[in-house]
Amino acid sequence: MNSILLTGCNGQVGWELQRTLAPLGRVTAIDRNALDLADADSIRAVLSEVRPRIIVNAAAYTAVDQAENEATQALLVNGQAPGVMAEEAKRLGALLVHFSTDYVFDGNKNGCYVEQDVTNPLNTYGRTKLAGELAIQSSGCRYLIFRTCWVYGLRGKNFLRTILRLAETKDELRIVADQCGAPTWSRMIAEATAAALATRTVAEGLFHLASTGSVSWHGFTQAILELTEQMRLRNPTLTAIPSSDYPQSAVRPLNSRLSCDLLEQAAGIRLPDWKDALRLCLGGAATA
Ligand SMILES: NC(=O)c1ccc[n+]([C@@H]2O[C@H](COP(=O)([O-])OP(=O)(O)OC[C@H]3O[C@@H](n4cnc5c(N)ncnc54)[C@H](OP(=O)(O)O)[C@@H]3O)[C@@H](O)[C@H]2O)c1
């Protein structure tokens, strides 16, 4: 039976992976208390003890704005730790599954980014995630890296939950309309990851994994408000604003669209349109 080590098991994607990986083997799911990824020696010790056949790293330093002031910690978790896991994966003959981000790109491309496009992160988080990708790729281990985008779900800290909370308290929501991407449900990422591992037809390497289609944060908000109208007592007005009217510590790319054709060709895996997935996710909320 496969032995699978899952890190970040309380995160958005990690939580869902606990369920989707379960049929594939014996899953050891650990959180920050069991393993602090900033501590390279602890990573080596845990991996030597568990000796997994598959390592799934769903942990990351994801506080994008805070990373501007905590670059060292972000680099330890997002850059160094994946490199240490990759070295250990190589030693153990294990497969390393890792997640990365659209923020490795600068967003200046017209059209969707493909895996081979030149990276040029605009912020510290993006730079540290790119460092993690490069450390894995240069390690010589067997790996799958999935770059995903605009992750949301019904638990954890994410844009959907923020909008649902603000919609109950604010009269007006002023939301950025000049950044586009594909909101991607954490559950879909976890399902697709398990499917990729189950079929074993996916060549190892780096793949984009995000919902189909694209929308702005403003358009995403509009869809959330429409789909939850019956669940709310208030109905705030929605105003489109440019990124320049919403200054944040970390600069975001204007274009986060990822082409996922490579994964479809390699494994026949394609996530649904972002709005269909949102409807499914909120359907769960309505019946919960
Ligand atoms: N969220 C997005 O919009 C987005 C977009 C593109 C790519 N991604 C990538 O997708 C993957 C999954 O993201 P997510 O949204 O599921 O993230 P998340 O919900 O923020 O979960 C990340 C998990 O990592 C853990 N973690 C942070 N620092 C740690 C440390 N030093 N040691 C051990 N664990 C630590 C966190 O633990 P605590 O709860 O204790 O802090 C949390 O459980 C990540 O690789 C992320 O970079 C995310």
Structure report:
The chain has 288 residues and is α/β, with parallel strands linked by helices. It has a domain at 3-158 and 184-212 and 257-272: Rossmann fold (3-Layer(aba) Sandwich). Helices cover 39% and strands 17% of the residues. The chain contains 9 helices and 12 strands. The protein has helices at residues 12-21, 40-50, 71-92, 124-137, 159-167, 186-199, 217-227, 261-267, 274-287, and strands spanning 3-7, 26-30, 54-57, 95-101, 142-148, 151-152, 172-176, 180-181, 184-185, 205-208, 215-216, 237-241. Strand 3, helix 3 and strand 4 form a beta-alpha-beta unit. Helix 7 runs parallel beside helix 9. The protein is globular and about 55 Å long. The two termini are 34 Å apart. The model has no long low-confidence stretch (mean pLDDT 95). Residues 8, 10-14, 32, 35-38, 58-62, 77, 99, 101, 129, 148-151, 156, 186 line the site of NADP nicotinamide-adenine-dinucleotide phosphate.
User: In CATH, what is the homologous superfamily of the domain at 3-158 and 184-212 and 257-272?
Assistant: NAD(P)-binding Rossmann-like Domain
Can you write the helix and strand succession as a string?
EHEHEHEHEEHEEEHEEHEHH
Share of residues in helices: 25-40%
Mean pLDDT: 95
**CATH architecture term of the domain at 3-158 and 184-212 and 257-272:** 3-Layer(aba) Sandwich
Q: Measured on Cα atoms, how large is the radius of gyration? A: 19 Å
The separation of the N and C termini measures 34 Å
Identify the bound ligands: NADP nicotinamide-adenine-dinucleotide phosphate
Indicate the proportion of strand residues: 15-25%
Task: Give the strand tally.
Answer: 12
Tally of DSSP helical segments: 9
Globular, elongated, flat, extended or rod-shaped: what is the shape? globular
Q: Which CATH class of the domain at 3-158 and 184-212 and 257-272 applies here?
A: Alpha Beta
Q: List unreliable stretches of 5+ residues.
A: none
For this structure, the CATH topology of the domain at 3-158 and 184-212 and 257-272 is: Rossmann fold
Order of strands across the main sheet: 2-1-3-4-5-10
Derived structural class: alpha/beta
Main pleated sheet: 6 strands, parallel
